[in-house]
């Protein structure tokens, strides 16, 4: 036989194996296409892959001599463990195997298994395997929780079944039976750590189907701990033994089927193992499942609300099971027994939980007032409610009447007035259905998704986090903490936080819709008329302070006066301030930055002074006169009576040429230094000063340029920061009457975790000088830094940006708000377009957002006037929207043509 023929013959089994693997995966695809459930598909795939494994093993076994076959068959066993042992696999899952042997066949078994493993890999199977004796396996299981839990699912598929049974018995005896509590805690600790590594929250918007909280691994954990505690991992057996109720088992099985199907679809979409449910995958799956949107929810939001309802239920049931069945050391049980006391002959109050005497349990659980007393008492003592009591409340809540008594309302308001433990209490009230009974609208917010770049959580999770954020303000040594502590009606504040986003998902302005819901809720809870008005005001205006602080010039007395008139009282201002800060904090980790906190506190303090009757301090003319005098003193100019001619007229001319915003927000020392530099600055020189500010983690770049560089100066400076992928937090733009430029940029340099080194600051200073002088162009900087490939393309269902023009808030300027998805380089493209339309940017507030990224530009025309012509305003809007939409579609590729 020729060498070519031998080679072809040798390769033939691998071709057959690969074909079998593809058939196994195709079987799953066919079932998926036919509408089969996740459990059915996962079982079918596992069965087919197991048949392939057996074929590979048997083919290799047949190549052994008769003596070798006998020796291996009597002393070796092959087991599938983990997901393979459960018989549930996704199409590209790893195959988890344990090759078990007795010591007398080490060499023979090693050669045999080496060939089996090699053939599996050649066939396209990805193995997670180990080769061990019984002793090795037990030792490994006692020290490695991941292997120990995989062994719970161990099942022999080939070889000596007695050897496999011996391992399983030994495993149970040495790893589980006499160390139940240790094993239980190892399982829980390992899973909690895994949860932390995969987001730590059920409601994260890009979950890992398997490992995130509420994922498939939580169901595994419940089964593992059930096995550790009661010797069985079967849900139905646990139900029959009374360890878990029928409703929870049914919920878990439905969720498992749903999550398995999602995971299988993700694998098929990616053509590989893929468990991360990305936003792009969510969009694709919503389209594949032909989900129809509503007026208030997009298809993808409906899909993810369904997903989160399953995952949240899984997380809650698992956590309850762990808490209810966790084995406690004898001393802990004895301590609890000795320290537990009764209250009113009904409640049992232990050091860490609250329970009800068994004979009164039915009476308590079937009365809303009594249930609320439980929550109120638990909140007062800072302890939890016993897990089995919560189960009873959960069942009873389904049958309680929808009407609520005055006593129930009083108890609910007492709970809402707590300054500690309110967040956890409301979460439990939500999980048991009691919160939905009190405020039916809360059911709408349950697992409601906001599909955008800016929120990290669902509406209900965001709301509970906002409540918890407000509680933490109590210990804050700041204006925010002082405001929180001085609020008298904390129950109304917390109710407003609970309802502030309740209007989302209806297809209307969520603040207005939320105000309508707040009105209904106020009536349901019997609030007085003044309380109703306060609640509705807080919900309706919960975005107002953020809008003003981040998007408007709060040194403008007209804006402050209008806002103070709208608020009307210090108490309302304190509540709105705390609500705003809590809302921003709960958007996602790191959103409420020191910078935003400072801006919000500034607006609060200015408005509080107005509400306190101290108008004179913020009367602009008087403040400007005071600033002028301070600046004059810093420049050491002579004191000139108002009726005499000013010999230093250059100073008055320069001072008056600056915008009131610049003069009122900068220190007199800074203004004096800028005026002195401008007076002495040669016509062809540019001064750039960079300084790192450790309190905010930003670098302030202060740029002073003569009139000859004023045209297009702003967007040229922006091009430097954009090319370096720096985040511009704010920009203050000032052009004097003579055309001199004084600009300040606060930026975050993401190349440095801690302090930005002086060498980097000096490098950026030089780049700014070159850019302003026109010695370098944007295209060269963008391409030389080569960073824009890091940006991802936006999915088609992201909301396109928009441009809003406000000609009301400022007497001097037209305000342009650019509301968009956050893209590297957006600010440069927009600022260049503004410059090319002949507009000058007087002030800018950059990349500050609550629900969206918003860049705000205060602009004037060629004659330094507000734009009032409606036709030109329309042209400006259309031009900017066209520029914005083109950029959103092309992203960083536009830099190659700048």
UniProtKB/TrEMBL annotation:
<comment type="similarity">
    <text>Belongs to the GlnD family.</text>
</comment>
<dbReference type="Pfam" id="PF01966">
    <property type="entry name" value="HD"/>
</dbReference>
<keyword id="KW-0511">Multifunctional enzyme</keyword>
<dbReference type="Pfam" id="PF08335">
    <property type="entry name" value="GlnD_UR_UTase"/>
</dbReference>
<dbReference type="InterPro" id="IPR010043">
    <property type="entry name" value="UTase/UR"/>
</dbReference>
<feature type="domain" description="HD">
    <location>
        <begin position="459"/>
        <end position="576"/>
    </location>
</feature>
<dbReference type="InterPro" id="IPR006674">
    <property type="entry name" value="HD_domain"/>
</dbReference>
<dbReference type="InterPro" id="IPR043519">
    <property type="entry name" value="NT_sf"/>
</dbReference>
<protein>
    <recommendedName>
        <fullName>Bifunctional uridylyltransferase/uridylyl-removing enzyme</fullName>
        <ecNumber>2.7.7.59</ecNumber>
        <ecNumber>3.1.4.-</ecNumber>
    </recommendedName>
</protein>
<dbReference type="GO" id="GO:0006808">
    <property type="term" value="P:regulation of nitrogen utilization"/>
</dbReference>
<keyword id="KW-0808">Transferase</keyword>
<feature type="region of interest" description="Uridylyltransferase">
    <location>
        <begin position="1"/>
        <end position="341"/>
    </location>
</feature>
<keyword id="KW-0548">Nucleotidyltransferase</keyword>
<comment type="function">
    <text>Modifies, by uridylylation and deuridylylation, the PII regulatory proteins (GlnB and homologs), in response to the nitrogen status of the cell that GlnD senses through the glutamine level. Under low glutamine levels, catalyzes the conversion of the PII proteins and UTP to PII-UMP and PPi, while under higher glutamine levels, GlnD hydrolyzes PII-UMP to PII and UMP (deuridylylation). Thus, controls uridylylation state and activity of the PII proteins, and plays an important role in the regulation of nitrogen metabolism.</text>
</comment>
<dbReference type="GO" id="GO:0008773">
    <property type="term" value="F:[protein-PII] uridylyltransferase activity"/>
</dbReference>
<keyword id="KW-0460">Magnesium</keyword>
<keyword id="KW-0378">Hydrolase</keyword>
<dbReference type="InterPro" id="IPR045865">
    <property type="entry name" value="ACT-like_dom_sf"/>
</dbReference>
<dbReference type="Pfam" id="PF24931">
    <property type="entry name" value="ACT_ACR9_3rd"/>
</dbReference>
<dbReference type="InterPro" id="IPR002912">
    <property type="entry name" value="ACT_dom"/>
</dbReference>
<dbReference type="InterPro" id="IPR013546">
    <property type="entry name" value="PII_UdlTrfase/GS_AdlTrfase"/>
</dbReference>
<dbReference type="GO" id="GO:0008081">
    <property type="term" value="F:phosphoric diester hydrolase activity"/>
</dbReference>
<keyword id="KW-0677">Repeat</keyword>
<feature type="domain" description="ACT">
    <location>
        <begin position="815"/>
        <end position="894"/>
    </location>
</feature>
<dbReference type="InterPro" id="IPR003607">
    <property type="entry name" value="HD/PDEase_dom"/>
</dbReference>
């Amino acid at each position: 036989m020729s060498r070519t023929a031998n080679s072809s013959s040798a390769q033939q089994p691998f071709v057959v194996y690969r074909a079998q693997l593809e058939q196994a995966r195709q079987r799953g695809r066919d079932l998926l296409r036919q509408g089969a459930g996740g459990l059915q598909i996962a079982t079918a795939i596992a069965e087919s892959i197991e048949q392939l494994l057996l074929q590979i093993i048997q083919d290799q076994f047949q190549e052994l001599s008769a003596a070798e076959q006998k020796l291996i068959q009597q002393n070796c066993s092959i087991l599938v463990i983990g997901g393979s042992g459960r018989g549930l696999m996704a199409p590209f899952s790893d195959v988890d195997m344990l090759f078990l042997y007795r010591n007398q066949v080490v060499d023979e078994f090693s050669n045999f298994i080496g060939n089996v493993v090699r053939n599996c890999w050649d066939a396209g199977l990805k193995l997670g395997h180990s080769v061990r004796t019984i002793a090795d396996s037990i030792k490994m299981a006692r020290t490695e929780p991941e292997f120990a839990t995989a062994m719970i699912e161990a099942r022999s598929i080939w070889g000596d079944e007695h050897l496999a049974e011996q391992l399983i018995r030994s495993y149970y005896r040495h790893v589980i039976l006499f160390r139940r509590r240790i094993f239980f805690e190892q399982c829980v600790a390992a899973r909690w750590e895994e949860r932390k590594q995969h987001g730590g929250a059920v409601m994260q918007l890009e979950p890992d189907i398997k490992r995130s909280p509420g994922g498939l691994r939580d169901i595994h954990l419940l089964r593992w701990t059930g096995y550790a505690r009661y010797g069985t991992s079967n849900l139905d057996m646990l139900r029959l033994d009374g360890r878990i109720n029928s409703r929870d088992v049914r919920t878990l099985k439905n969720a498992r089927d749903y999550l398995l199907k999602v995971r299988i679809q993700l694998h098929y979409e990616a053509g590989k193992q893929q468990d991360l449910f990305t936003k792009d995958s969510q969009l694709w799956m919503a389209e594949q499942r032909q989900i129809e949107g509503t007026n208030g929810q997009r298809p993808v939001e409906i899909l993810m609300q369904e997903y989160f309802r399953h995952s949240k239920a899984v997380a809650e049931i698992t956590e309850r099971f762990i808490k209810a069945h966790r084995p406690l050391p004898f001393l802990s049980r004895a301590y609890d027994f000795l320290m537990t006391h009764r209250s009113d002959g009904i409640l049992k109050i232990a050091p860490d939980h609250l329970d009800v005497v068994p004979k009164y349990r039915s009476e308590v659980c079937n009365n809303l007032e009594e249930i609320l007393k439980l929550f109120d008492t638990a909140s007062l003592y800072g302890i939890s409610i016993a897990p089995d009591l919560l189960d009873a409340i959960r069942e009873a809540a389904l049958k309680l009447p929808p009407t609520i008594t005055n006593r129930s309302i009083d108890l609910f308001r007492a709970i809402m007035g707590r300054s500690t433990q309110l967040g956890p209490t409301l979460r439990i009230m939500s999980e048991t259905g009691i919160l939905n009974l009190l405020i039916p609208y809360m059911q709408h917010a349950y697992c409601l998704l906001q599909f955008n770049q800016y929120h990290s959580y669902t509406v209900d999770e965001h709301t509970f986090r906002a409540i918890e954020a407000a509680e933490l303000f109590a210990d804050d040594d700041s204006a925010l903490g002082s405001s929180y502590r001085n609020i008298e009606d904390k129950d109304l504040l917390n109710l407003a936080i609970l309802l502030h986003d309740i209007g989302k998902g209806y297809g209307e302005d969520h603040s207005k819709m939320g105000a309508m819901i707040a009105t209904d809720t106020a009536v349901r809870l019997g609030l007085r008329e003044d309380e109703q008005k306060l609640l509705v005001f807080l919900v309706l205006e919960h975005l107002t302070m953020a809008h003003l602080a981040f998007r408007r010039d709060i040194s403008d007395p007209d804006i402050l006066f209008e806002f103070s008139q709208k608020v009307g009282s210090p108490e309302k201002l304190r509540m709105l301030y705390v609500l705003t800060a809590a809302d921003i904090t709960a958007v996602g980790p790191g959103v409420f930055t020191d910078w935003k906190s400072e801006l919000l506190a500034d607006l609060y303090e200015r408005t509080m002074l107005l509400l306190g009757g101290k108008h004179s301090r913020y009367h602009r003319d008087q403040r400007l006169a005071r600033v002028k005098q301070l600046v004059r003193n810093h420049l050491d100019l002579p004191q000139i009576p108002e009726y005499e001619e000013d010999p230093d007229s250059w100073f008055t001319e320069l001072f008056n040429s600056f915008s009131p915003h610049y003069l009122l927000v900068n220190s007199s020392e800074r203004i004096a230094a800028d005026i002195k530099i401008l007076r002495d600055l040669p016509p062809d020189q540019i001064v750039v000063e960079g300084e790192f500010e450790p309190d905010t983690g930003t670098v302030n770049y202060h740029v002073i340029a003569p009139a000859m560089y004023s045209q297009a100066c702003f967007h040229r400076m922006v091009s430097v920061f954009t090319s370096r992928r720096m985040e511009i937090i704010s920009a203050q733009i000032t052009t004097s009457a003579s055309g001199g430029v004084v600009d300040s940029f606060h930026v975050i340099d993401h190349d440095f975790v801690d302090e930005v080194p002086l060498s980097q600051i000096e490098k950026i200073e030089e780049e700014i000088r070159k850019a302003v002088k026109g010695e370098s162009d944007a295209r060269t900087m963008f391409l030389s830094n080569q960073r824009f490939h890091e940006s991802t393309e936006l999915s088609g269902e992201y909301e396109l940006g928009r441009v809003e023009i406000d000609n009301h808030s400022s007497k001097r300027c037209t305000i342009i708000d650019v509301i968009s998805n956050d893209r590297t380089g957006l600010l440069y493209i927009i600022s260049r377009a503004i410059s090319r339309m002949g507009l000058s940017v007087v002030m800018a507030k950059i990349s500050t957002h609550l629900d969206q990224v918003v860049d705000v530009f205060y602009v004037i025309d060629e004659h330094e006037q507000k734009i009032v012509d409606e036709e030109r305003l329309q042209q400006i809007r259309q031009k900017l929207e066209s520029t914005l939409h083109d950029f959103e579609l092309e992203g960083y590729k536009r830099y190659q043509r700048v």
